[in-house]
Each structure stands twice: as structure tokens, then as C-alpha cells.
Amino acid sequence: MSLSCPDHPYAHLVEDHRAGDVICPECGRVVGDRLVDVGTEWRSFSNERSGTDPSRVGAPENPLMGASDLSTSIAVGFGSSDGDQSLANAQRRSSNNSDRQMSQGMTHIREMSDRIHLTRAIQDRAALLFRQMLDGKTLRGKNIAAQVASCLYVACRQEGVPRTLKEIIAVAGCSSREVNKCVKLIIRSSENSFQLITSEDFMSRFCGNLDLPHPVQRAATHIARVAKELDLVAGRSPISIAAAAIYMASQASAYKKTAKEVGEITGAAEVTVKQTFRLLRPDAARLFPDNFAFDTPIDQLPAS
């Protein structure tokens, strides 16, 4: 029902939010009263006159926490049966436990992400993934640190900035066996397809951490790709292939890095870097790009 002033039906009414009244500006008549102000309350009741106080409004709703949904709660009153009471208690315990686990998981996600400098987008995706696994009970009974580590690992892959399992496990404080199991369960239960990790995914970060220039990085990427096409490194992990390719490219350039230095950055063992390099060494002439500026000729590359 629309309001209008009896004496001035075409006047544009004014709302007095402080008093909660609707007033005719022509004659001052109160046409309606007791309006409910649905806006945010910013008034401060503190002793300090510092203007508005946003803290009174409370924290924003978090869609990942169960308290923000419109789910039905079971309420029991006087005279309710024992069965009703038990059902209500069970629902309350389940809801509280789920929210508590989600809160713990998000705390772990923030802490681990800060330690290995993961972006907010990756943290948000990991939190969403953790919520989905929590709702589906996919990782039920698993160590929460392993659950979070696996969600971060998968989130990094989905965001196109993969991290190695060793990097994730180093900040998770749990065993690689636990994290591997959780990762497999997540991938198995997910409707999304996951692209396989390749050596090229890590080249930019590894070479940057080793202070290698772009031509060396480009050569290492080319070496790893051609080695896979020629099936020279069958059975080797993408990390091992990337490490060996970087080692080979650096040894042929003026920016030489030892197998130990490369292993420390990539997370591959020094012996693994050398073993994989020995698989590449006989075909080195076919692996380097045509325009590579050699500082050390191919025939003078180290034997391992």
C-alpha cells in the first residue's frame, strides 16, 4: 500500500530515518510512522567520539562456514520425547564438529600458504576443496595436516602454478605417504579432470631461484621436452627431468651450477640429478635448441 498526504497527494514524501516517520514536505504532516531502517548500523556507543564504529556490525559472513546457510535446525521443547532430544543433540554435535574442522583447516591453510608464499587465489581454492572433502567425508579419519597439504597441492595444480609434494610436505609436518593417499582420494572423488604435471611447469621457478638467465631457462625447457619426446627418461619424475635438464643447460652455459646446487633448489637428490643427466648425455646434440650460445661445447660436458 502506497502512502500519500491527504492534503497534498502529489507531494514527494520524505523519510525521517532517525524518527522512523514519513513526512509530507509541503505541510509537515506525518503520513506514516515506525519505519524499520534496514541499513547497516554504524553508530558507536563507546565513550570515545571517534565517529563510526564498524566493529559493531560484526565479521562478514563466510560461505565456507556452515552457520551462514539456511539449513533446518531441530528444536525440542518441554514434553519432547527422548528420541527427539537425541536427534537434536546429534545434529548439534555434527554441525559444531564440521564448523570446528573447517576453522582448523582454514587456519592450517593460511599458515602453510604463508610459509611457501602461495597466493590468495590458491588459498581460497584450497579452502573450497577442503570444504567439499569435509562435506563428502572423502578424507574422513585422515590427519588434518595431511588433508590440508593435499588440498593445497591440488589447488596449486588447478591454478596452474604447481608445487612439488616435497615443498608442500616440508611445511605440513606430516609424512609423504599420508599426503599421497589424500591426493589420490581427492583426485578420485573430484569431477574435474587434472592435467598431468610436466617438467616445464617448474622451469621458470627453479631457474629463477638458481639465478639463471632466460636463455638458459629456455634451453632447459627445450631439453626436457625433447627428452620426453625421444623417450630418453622413461620412468623418471617430472622433477628429476627438470633438474637434469637445468643441470645440462647450465653446464653448457657461462652460468654453471653443480648437481648439488640444482638438487637443493628442485628438491631432487644430487645422485638422482646425475643419474638422469647420464641418460640425457649421449643425445645432448639433439637436445639443445639450435640457437643456444654454448660456453662449453657438448663434447666437453661433464660425464655425470
TrEMBL record:
It is found in: Nucleus. It holds the Pfam family Zn_Ribbon_TF. It comes from the Eukaryota. Keywords: Metal-binding, Nucleus, Repeat, Transcription, Transcription regulation, Zinc, Zinc-finger. The gene is WBGene00104331. InterPro entries: Cyclin-like_dom, Cyclin-like_sf, TFIIB, TFIIB_CS, TFIIB_cyclin, Znf_TFIIB. This is Transcription initiation factor IIB. Gene3D superfamilies: 2.20.25.10, Cyclin-like. Belongs to the TFIIB family. GO terms for biological process: DNA-templated transcription initiation; RNA polymerase II preinitiation complex assembly; transcriptional start site selection at RNA polymerase II promoter. One of its GO terms (cellular component) is transcription preinitiation complex. It comes from Pristionchus pacificus. The keyword Iron does not apply. GO terms for molecular function: RNA polymerase II general transcription initiation factor activity; TBP-class protein binding; zinc ion binding.
